[in-house]
Amino acid sequence: MPSRSTPTFEDWPEADRAAWAQAILPGDFLDEGGPASGWSPETRRKVLGGYARWLAYLSRTDESLLDLPPAARVTSPMVRQYLAEACVGMQAISTWNFAGQLHNMMRVTAPNQNWGWLKALVARLAREIRPKSKYGKLVGAPTLLALGTRLMDTARDAMNQRRHAAANQYRDGLLIALLAHRPLRRANIAAIRIGVHLVSAGRGYALVFAAQETKNRRPLEMSLPADLALYLEHYLTVIRPRFPRASSHDGLWASEKGFSMDPSAIYDRVRRRTRDALGIAVNLHSIRDSAATLLAEEDVKGHNNARDLLGHARFGTTERHYIHSDRRKAVIANQLVLRRLREQHGRTQRMRKPASEPTSS
């Protein structure tokens, strides 16, 4: 295998490529298939990238290790050395990611081995992660919707003066407005194809994803509100055709490069537009956080609504958003209690203060 930082799949040792091919082997009604056959494309991409990093490290350390069977290389001392060297200067979450990707690869390519020690290591690394506060980036859906609408309206007014910039602005505004209404995962929002995922529904539109296209392996269907449908119709008929080679592909989010925007490009555009307009670079995951937290604050019985909105299979995944909400409510309630106690204390002190004695003449 050539020595490089991130070797391609074709550069992997033959044994590793064969093990991966077996892990993703499709199943049928008689056979469940390989242990990774149900993984989404995004999960496969991440695990393959992490494993390529591991192979590159072995190649730099001792290339003869690549002649061993894949499972024989993954020992506790070797993995600890790998994490210690590969993650120098990185945050704890990066170390956890590296270990987790390696564990995921090994449990599907060598499922008969005992990987309990590696799983325990991943869990221990997860406990060392110090979560960052998300409160500063929790921008509510009404604010995002207002931003998206403003971008589209001003772009339409400026279409004759700055055609290309206005088309990009309208597309980005529609993207933000759609996320405000339907906070999809990055992979799904980028994958939308006209006529496949975006379909006509009566006088409006709906988004439809098959089970194999979602993270939780469940089909996802959601209608789009009427006010958004009007902006979407204008985009499809007037704005999108102005992008280069837009007629050659069916991706919803056309780009000036002549093909559909990928997940990274969408992530960057949303961050840039929100940073310029709001002073906060809002990412797609924080939009999902905001949506669930808002439901928690407005509707104490909205647990299932938030779960369905975010496309979670279990409420346990959604529950952390309600924890954000509960903590914020607890802080506010505590402030109100302290204020009330201070006011009561002030009244008590005024009642106990002796009246001033009359001055002598």
General description of the model:
By secondary structure, the protein is mainly alpha-helical. It folds into 2 domains: 9-127, no CATH class; 135-283, hpI Integrase, Chain A (Orthogonal Bundle). Helices cover 58% and strands 4% of the residues. It contains 14 helices and 3 strands. The chain has helices spanning 14-23, 41-61, 70-73, 76-86, 92-109, 116-127, 141-157, 163-181, 186-191, 226-239, 263-278, 284-298, 303-310, 315-352; strands spanning 198-201, 204-209, 220-223. It has a 3-stranded antiparallel β-sheet, covered by helices on one side. β1 and β2 form a beta hairpin. α8 (163-181) crosses α11. Residues 298-303, 315-319, 321-334 and 357-361 have low confidence and may be disordered.
Give me the secondary-structure topology.
Elements: H1 14-23, H2 41-61, H3 70-73, H4 76-86, H5 92-109, H6 116-127, H7 141-157, H8 163-181, H9 186-191, E1 198-201, E2 204-209, E3 220-223, H10 226-239, H11 263-278, H12 284-298, H13 303-310, H14 315-352
At the fourth CATH level, what is the homologous superfamily of the largest domain?
Intergrase catalytic core
- Give the low-confidence spans: 298-303, 315-319, 321-334, 357-361
Please state how the strands of the largest beta sheet are arranged side by side.
Answer: 1-2-3
List the domain count as a whole number. 2
Shape annotation: globular
Mean pLDDT: 82
Give the CA-CA distance, first to last residue: 107 Å
Order of helices and strands: HHHHHHHHHEEEHHHHH
Overall structural class, as computed from helix and strand content, comes to: mainly alpha
Helix content: 55-70%
Main beta-sheet strand count, sense and barrel state: 3 strands, antiparallel
Assigned CATH architecture of the largest domain? Orthogonal Bundle
**Rg value:** 27 Å
How many beta-strand elements? 3
Percent of residues in beta strands? under 5%
